[in-house]
Amino acid sequence: MRRSELQESIIQKVLLTNNAQLLNYLNYLLSNKKERETHMEPDFESSILSEKQSDYSSGKTLSDDDVFRRNG
Asked: CA-CA distance, 19 to 13, in Å (whole number)?
């Protein structure tokens, strides 16, 4: 997938989500380094990240279609 296609795919997914926690986390990830250094990651974001990393490690993942159906 070309960079422009990847960007468009990510933008479309962000526009379709209603998950405020996910949007806050994406905003944090995409902020510049200086902002990240002064912004402590909230506890709920840390716990969500740990949970999702565990889910991924154990194979509990969703396809793009499933994500769109859930957030649509």
From this structure: 11
Q: 41, 28 in Cβ contact below 8 A? A: yes
42: Cβ contacts below 8 Å, ≥ 6 apart: 24
| pLDDT classification of 15: cutoffs 50, 70, 90 | very high
Residue 37: CA atoms inside 13 Å, Cβ hemisphere, count?
3
Least trusted range by pLDDT, from 5-9, 15-19, 42-46: 42-46
Q: Full-prediction pTM beyond 0.90?
A: no
